[in-house]
Model the fold of this input.
Amino acid sequence: MLALDLVERLRQVSPSAANALLTVAVKNIIPLSSVMGVRVEDASDARAQVSVPLKRRTRNHVGSVYLGVQVTVMELTMGVWLFRRFPPGRYLALVNELQVSFHAKAKGGVRAICEPPPEVFNTLDAALKQKGDKAREWIPVRLEDFEGTHIADARFLAVMKKA
Done:
């Protein structure tokens, strides 16, 4: 049984326990996320949501969330959604390009939300039928603070292939 299958079985019993297990998995796969205090809040076929608190290790010299932390949590959120839809082992994925627009200062903790339109999944799925097939698609992520203020938007060009 794949680890993601275990998470999905757990999600049927306790969504919060499944998110906690995903948080531990992300921290083991990407050690930097552990230092940042990353927490997976939601992971479904339709969306992923990951948060990072404002703390000493995520704060910049002016007291807001460091730009690198903001971009990293957005990328991790995109990865949680992507690997929920296209499990590692069966698929390989890399980010080839990133576009970010910042709208406000992140004065407190932030949460990234990845809710791509259905056609993003459909385009990727249609292109990844056989081993070695490749697909490219832009995946949007929104960043907001814990009060709901819109902080940034990002688009990640994911390049994938079937393993």
Remarks:
- The mean pLDDT is 88.
